[in-house]
Amino acid sequence: MDHPSSPQGPSHPDDQDPGAPVRAGVPEHGRVPKYYAVKVRIDALIGELGESGPLPTERDLAERYGVARETVRQALRELLLEGKLRREGRGTVVAGPKVEQPLSMASYTEGVRKQGRRPGRRLIALDRIACPAPLAADIGLERGQPVWHMERVLLADDERVGLESTYVAVDRVPRLDRDFEPDSSFYAYLRDRLGVSFGGADERIETVLATPREALLIGTPPALPMLLIHRVSRDTAGRPLERVRSLYRGDRFSFTTHHGDGVRRGHD
Question: How do residues 61-75 score in pLDDT, each as one tens digit?
């Protein structure tokens, strides 16, 4: 049986990554689960291997660290969920850095490009539907009026990282099915082709699990945590413009925001 152990790595807050757990995740009683000690050592190995580097097999890792394969398996599960590793074929490789998306009116395209990656989208559906009652108020319509529903898989360097559903009134973008390139930025289309600018938005973010269909489209296990953003956008005149449901892989995305210098720091 594996017993608690001390992980190899920094144990003092001043020695560790500021984004890491306090005391490197060591509980106050000082007893560390064996899998966590192995996880810390594999995490260090990840840094040595570099992006896309192949990880040794579970058997090799178990022999290297002198633990049971189930202990290694538990450590790998957490590293996969954290986005530090990814499955490739039958093996496991080191994942690249997460995409940082600003929580602002900047488009997905702009956010990914700032990370030095190539944005893309793959169209799943573009349908004209009758506006359902729950959606009508959000985009300033009456129930039953025509609405576009556009669903696209989000890509970063051809890697599937999310799924986006956009709802917009047909009378705002009547030629969406003819003029719009589905792999391009919807914001840029509105701005450059129609002269429509975004004036503001209300957003809500939560953690969810993908449905089986969503997991299949994004290419992830159903148990993988996702970051879900609901957004209702308005134009510069304050008129409702679109409602968007964006689902992002929790292991491949993080979100950033900026507060002005006048914002009070600290906690009550």
Answer: 999 999 999 999 989
Amino acid code (one letter) for 5: S
Helices of type H across the chain:
34-49, 58-65, 69-81, 108-114, 133-136, 176-179, 186-194, 212-218
Contacts of 102 by beta carbon, 8 Å cutoff, 6+ apart: 111, 114, 255, 256, 257, 258
CB of 37 within 8 A of CB of 6?
A: yes
Are the C-beta atoms of 109 and 188 separated by less than 8 Å?
yes
Amino acid identity for residue 238 in this structure: G
Q: Coil, helix or strand for 122?
A: strand
Q: What are phi and psi of 133, to 5 degrees?
A: -55, -45
For residue range 34-50, list pLDDT tens digits in order. Answer: 888 898 899 889 988 98
Tokens of 47: 């840094």
**Angstrom distance (rounded) from CA 133 to CA 209:** 25
CA distance 121 to 244: 15
* Cα distance between residue 32 and residue 217, in whole Å: 38
Q: What single string gives the DSSP state of each residue in 183-205?
A: TS-HHHHHHHHH---EEEEEEEE
Q: At what angle do helices 69-81 and 34-49 cross, to 10 degrees?
A: 60
Give me the domains of the chain, ranges plus CATH numbers: 13-94 (1.10.10.10), 99-256 (3.40.1410.10)
Nearest to 94 by CA among 81, 104, 103, 85: 85
170, 146 contact by CB (below 8 A): yes
CA dist 74 and 42 (Å) reads 12
66: phi > 0 → left, psi -120 to 50 → alpha, else beta; which? left
User: pLDDT band at residue 99, thresholds of 50, 70 and 90?
Assistant: low
